[in-house]
What we know:
The structure holds 2 protein chains of 2 kinds.
Chain A: H1 2-14, H2 17-35, H3 41-55, H4 59-84, H5 95-104, H6 108-141, H7 146-163, H8 168-183, E1 185-186, E2 193-194, H9 208-226, H10 248-253, H11 255-270, H12 275-290, H13 303-319, H14 321-327, H15 333-344, H16 353-356, H17 358-381, H18 386-389, H19 394-413, H20 416-434, H21 440-462, H22 474-499
Antiparallel strand pairs in A: 1-2
Chain B: H1 3-22, H2 37-56, H3 66-84, H4 87-102, H5 106-127
Amino acid sequence: METVHLLGQGMALATMPVNILMLLVGITLGMLVGAIPGISAANGIALMLPVTYTFGLAPQTALILYAAIYYGAKYSSRISAILADVPGDVGSFSTRNEGYPLALAGKAGKALALTAVSSFVGGSIAILLLTFTTALFADIGGSFGPAEYVALIAFVFVLILSFSSTLFIKNLISLCLGLMISVVGLDWATGAFRYTSTIPELFDGIDFIIVVIGVFALSESFMLMEKPDGGRKPQVVTAITDKVDDLSMECWRLKWSCLRASIVGLLIGILPGAGAYVANIAAYRFEKKVGAGKRQAFGRGNLRGLIAPEAANSACALGAFLPLMALGIPGSATTAVLHGALLQMNIDPGPGLCRAHPEIIWTMVASMYLGNLLLLLVNIRMFRYFPKLLAIPGWVLMPMIVVISFVSVYAVSQSIVSLLIMVLIGLLAYGLRKFSYPLAPLILGYVLGKPFEDNFRIALTIGGGQIDQFLQSTIAISLWGCILFSVLVKIVVQWRNRLQPDH
Amino acid sequence: MSERLFILILFVCGAVYLYFGLKIEVPFAYEPLGPRTFPVLLGSCLMVLCLLSLGLHKMTTVRLQSGVAGHGLAILFYLLTFHLLGFMLATTISTYAISRSVGCSWMQGLLTGLILAIAFYGIFHFLLGLPLPLGALFRLGS
Lengths: 503, 142
């Protein structure tokens, strides 16, 4: 009952004109960055950070905007996957397999409309789960002290290290670099300046916006430079010709695939580390295994294979909010950006977040209901205009990313040194991407590095330097137990892979 | 550019990080760990990881494309002239260079540059109230 009450209050806040406006702006922007291949949700949010900063938006309003960009982008990343065989975002990787053949067969409209519905279903299931579990977690989060927080962050690090699909050592290097960036600045406990030299821009640490823009936006412009046309195939479907009138029967027939995939996506989304890419592919493979032999073959426009990855993608994107809202822990690159944005607005995102700022959490949840519904309406009604979104030429897009990056960083710090740091971080991130190092551990390490070190040292100080301070409470012990378990699982999996090298 | 070179750069970064980490000093330690432990740990971790990955996994070589190098130069130019030429002029020139390297006509490039420069200056100056640099060069005479 309390949940309904809180949600009602959240809804009252979410329907304030400014919040509705920001929801609309966020969804439009999200659809845009999601549809254009190469620009991801994290880019979109990074580029909006200075705008909210200068307008002085209230925290919940800003979060509504960022969240809308995030799930809007995940919603619309299917557009270019279906029409041009290029995923608009990594989260729609498997949607191409069935979507593009359908589009070539002249059924692009049907494919877009069906995936819109399945995304909506996936997203709605995730939001329902958020609504009814956040309050539960908030009670646990209230009993977190420094020692428990350290264990929680360590758990997130272990999960992201073991879930990333790249080589383990590359994940570790990426995480290490992120932590190294987070160390820069004034040390709270001793007043020592670390790695600041005499540059005032560094005294307060490397600014969050500088890191995010360098890592996501600027490195992206380098990546785009390698294939100026976005790697598009010559055969892009430019006009949607088929009629889409009655989909309700079709949707009803596919309900089980949709539900299955949503649950797969949701489970992957809640666990920190895996992300939409894994959810998308896992749902597709799962559907292929379960639905094999029924009706037509996969890979040539199977409708079940088309909707499953999209439902999983949306469920995963919204499910990733659960650890963020309940425990203040980001689990993916984009939620890490949201986490940092909270810090920018002087809100301490930690296990106590949901208890200290219920209004922010519930306004965001309420706005997600509205946003998801709006996305469904827009996507069903206006899909005929989608091919236009893909027509933005590279020679407008690329300089625009560069200019926006520079201007955004300049807006927060007005100094050339910050721009220089941003360019250096961008180059580093480009190198990392080029040699297939994942960026998520880096950004998580950067965002969580500071709280990790600070709480570690606070806990040690409380315990008078005794290491058993970290094993005092049940929560801490069970978290360390989880960490041990994940490490063991990872070792066993690695071991088995080594035994079967051809697998 | 080979991955080996990239890892070597990271290794050197780790070494520099470690060196400056060791030089962090505090007059009085209030707590058991002190500000030096984490940086030293991270610097040495990165060095060990770089060595490990040099020994453990296969290295790839990626050719540095001329387009990417040109893009890097354009960004460097933008960075250096941002204050000197002012936002408008620097943006127009760099945008023109980037657009041309992606392959458009000179007219399209010039228009993109001008429109981006004026639009962003307008948005930031009038809407958001953030002054962008007008150019140190033009103030020399006055």
